[in-house]
Amino acid sequence: MPAVPAGYTSGGQINKPSCFDRVKIGFTMGFTVGMVTGIVFGGFTGLRYGLRGRELLSTVGKSVISAGGTFGTFMAIGSAIRC
Prior knowledge:
Layout: E1 8-10, E2 13-15, H1 19-48, H2 54-82
Antiparallel strand pairs: 1-2
């Protein structure tokens, strides 16, 4: 199924995403980018300190949630400003 464009028509009317929908999409995209960044930097930092196994996964998990939440929040705020 193809993606729906931003100004799709439904019954002859043009429907655009609401401001809240844009903020949710911004947070989701930011959280995803932050998660990838957290995996990369948290993984390299843990390996540099010599962590292995559960210690490494715990450190990477904390950095993923932290980076994802931070970047997602900033993207949501930026999306809200643009509404």
